């Protein structure tokens, strides 16, 4: 039988002052490296989800229609939406460029969850329990460079290149003093009496804390308008995303994704237009990034711009895991005693399946607008406010952009 004294010594080495020196040299003590990797993936996927919900980057401030009387394309006298997606193309041979800057903050605290702890290879021993939680923050700035070109009167092609700056931190939380016992109730009692300690997962872990910049997922896409009348315009938009080469610094997921959407504009000749779109964003590697996404709202054209108001939403296939379900710790041999039960390492298994996941389904309120500075330059701004409170996602996202139409 595992002695509770051994468990107490091992856990004290993690957080207690009496034997800190004996256990502090281990990079992966009590599965710390696994929790650091889990925290890094949590931030990476949460950042990618938030970036995927930013306002459209393809040029849509102006659309161009063919005028048979002039035998040329004529720019529309109305501006398109800012935070809603339009099916209108920019016109054959036309070009636009855009630079946008977005900022948001992610923050979450997860209460400690139970792990069953056992010496490696000793499956017949009675279970002993301990608890670990997580605190994380990330301040994210996205500089998005994009360009759109009218291939034909019905088809646009676009590219966008996001540069992502992430200032992140993550700490594991655990009970002060002795926080391992055969009774989960006693573990909770000790934590309630002693409180929680915090330890940065960047210390001898694998979490890339601090400020890092990298290239996000570059996107290539196309927009086509396939039906229009005085009441309705229908189109489709498809985007192919490429893996981020900077996933190790949390700038984006290292995965391909394809995102086709059907887009509609209603009341095309009315004073205000209604925009609706829906599609499925399929990530080839991460089920946590696969989602059904939709938006609906209205845009009011102004003499030199437009104002938008609407709602967007995402329903994800799989929740994100914030801490691993299993972890392994390095061997722990206090005072060089090779006969201890942890001399071959430590196995940890989540005691309550599902307690390590977070559901990021979201409904947002979006509003924004654009202002024509000159015939070539348009400035736009958009704000996204989360209406649901679950998940690791920003409460609000702000975007400011400058568009160029030669």
| Class by SSE composition | mainly beta
Q: Low-confidence parts lasting 5 or more residues at pLDDT below 50?
A: 9-24
Rg is 26 Å
Question: What CATH architecture would you give?
Answer: Beta Barrel
Sum up the overall morphology in one term. Answer: elongated
How many domains make up the coordinates?
A: 1
CATH-defined superfamily: monomeric porin ompg
- Total beta strands: 20
CATH class: Mainly Beta
Q: Provide the succession of SSEs.
A: HHHEEEEEHEEEEEEEEEEEEEEE
Note the main sheet.
Answer: 12 strands, antiparallel, barrel
CATH topology term: Porin
Average pLDDT, all residues = 86
Architecture overview:
- By secondary structure, the protein is mostly beta strands.
- Helices cover 12% and strands 49% of the residues.
- The protein has a single domain, classed as monomeric porin ompg (Porin).
- The chain has helices spanning 4-15, 20-23, 32-52, 184-194; strands spanning 64-67, 72-75, 95-119, 128-152, 155-175, 196-200, 210-215, 219-228, 232-241, 257-266, 273-283, 291-302, 305-316, 320-321, 326-329, 346-350, 357-358, 362-372, 377-386, 396-404.
- The strands form 3 sheets. Strands 3-4-5-8-9-10-11-12-13-18-19-20 form a 12-stranded antiparallel barrel. The protein has a two-stranded antiparallel ribbon with strand order 1-2. A two-stranded antiparallel sheet has the order 14-17.
- Strand 8 and strand 9 (232-241) form a beta hairpin.
